[in-house]
Amino acid sequence: MVTLHKTNYIGEGTYQMCYVHPDFNNLCLKLRKGIRTNKSRVDQEIKYYEKIQKRNIGFPFLSKYHGELETNLGIASVFDMVRDETTNDISASMYDYLLRDDSPFSDELFITKLKELKGVLVKNKILIRDLTAKNICCKVLANKSVELIIIDGVGHRDFIPMVEWFEILTRRKMNKIFDRKKLYSMTEHREWLAHRNLLY
Ligand SMILES: Nc1ncnc2c1ncn2[C@@H]1O[C@H](COP(=O)(O)OP(=O)(O)O)[C@@H](O)[C@H]1O
Ligand SMILES: [Mg+2]
C-alpha cells in the first residue's frame, strides 16, 4: 500500500483529488472525492480509457492510464503525470495560462492547437465530453513549444456508441462540444469557464 502525505497533493477538480506518487514522480494518483455521488462519472471515464487503450490509440494527446493502486486514502486511479520537458515541473493547465497576464502562449496559439487536437481526436474516433482548459495540461517541450495533453473528461454518454464507430459522427459531436464550451475563441472560453465556476 502506498502512503500519501499532504506534501504529495498537487491539486483537485470537482470530482477527484490528485497526488504525485511518492516514489515515482512521473505518476499521478487520483482519488475520488465523494465516493457515492461521483462514482458513476469516474467509473465511466476509466472504462472509456481502458477501451481506448485496448485500441492502442490516444497517445500522446491523452495522459496514459495505468490501472488502480491502493493508498492510505483509498483506491487511486494511476495516470502519467504531465511534466514540462524544460524544467520537469508538473505542467500547468491551459486554464492557468489563460488567467496569466504574462502567458508565453497566445490565445491564437491555443486556438490552433485545439483545432489540431480536435482533428486527431476525430481521426481516432475519441470523444472528450468535458474538453475544457481545466482538463488540458500544457506540456512545455525542450524546444519551448507546447503540447496539449488531456488529463480528464474523456468519454460520452450515448447508450449506443455510434460516435465511436463513424468518424462523421465523432466530428459532429466534437464540433458541438467546441460550440457549447466556446472553444473557438479563448475570450469566450474564459467567460464560459468563469460562468461555470459560479455554478459550482
Ligand atoms: N496527469 C496529470 N498531470 C498533471 N497534472 C494533473 C494530471 N491530472 C490532474 N492534474 C491536475 O489536477 C487537477 C484536477 O484533476 P482532474 O483530473 O481534472 O480532476 P477532476 O476529475 O476532479 O476534474 C487538474 O486541473 C490538473 O491541474
Ligand atoms: Mg477536471
From TrEMBL:
Pfam families from the UniProt entry: YrbL-PhoP_reg
Domain of life, source organism: Bacteria
Protein name, as recorded: PhoP regulatory network protein YrbL
Species the sequence originates in: Aggregatimonas sangjinii
